[in-house]
Amino acid sequence: MSDVWTQIKRVRILIQSEDIDYLNSLVLGVKDLGLNVNELDLIVWVEDEERKKIIASKVKCVTLSARDFNWLGKLKNDKLKTMLTVDKDLTLLIGELPKKFVKLIGFKRSKFVCSLNENSSFAQINLETEKQNGKEQLSFLKDTLSKIALG
Q1: Weakly modelled stretches of the chain, pLDDT under 50
Q2: Residue pair 91/112 in contact by the 8 Å Cβ criterion
Q3: Which CATH number belongs to the domain containing residue 15 in this structure?
Q4: What Rg do the C-alpha atoms of the chain give, in angstroms?
C-alpha cells in the first residue's frame, strides 16, 4: 500500500506573499524534498504592481494580481495560461488567498489539493502548522502526507 507523498512528483504552489526570502525558501524546500524544481509552479498573488515586478525578478515564480484578469474574470496572463495546461500531482494552497484566484487555478489539472494554514473548501486535505519557514512547512507537508495511506 502506498501513501499520498509517494504519488507526488510535480507540485503547484499558490500563495499570497511579498516576502522574497520566504518565497525563495519554498523553492529551496522543494529541492530539499528531492522534487525537481523545474517541475514546480510557484504562483504568487501580489496586489501591488511595483512589488509584483520586484518579486518576479528575484524569485522563480509567476506573479499574479487583479490586473491579470479581464472584466469577465478571464485570465490574461499567457505564461500562467500555459502553466495551467500541465498536470500536477499536488496543488498546495498556502495561507489565505483571494477566492477568484483559487477558483481559477486552485484545483485545475491536479491529482491532490492540499491547503496549509487555511481551511479551504477547495482542498481535499487541510493542514495547520506553526512553522513559519517555507522549507520547514514543506517538510511538515511531506511528513504528514507520508502518513496518509492510499487504498
Answers
A1: none
A2: yes
A3: 3.40.50
A4: 15
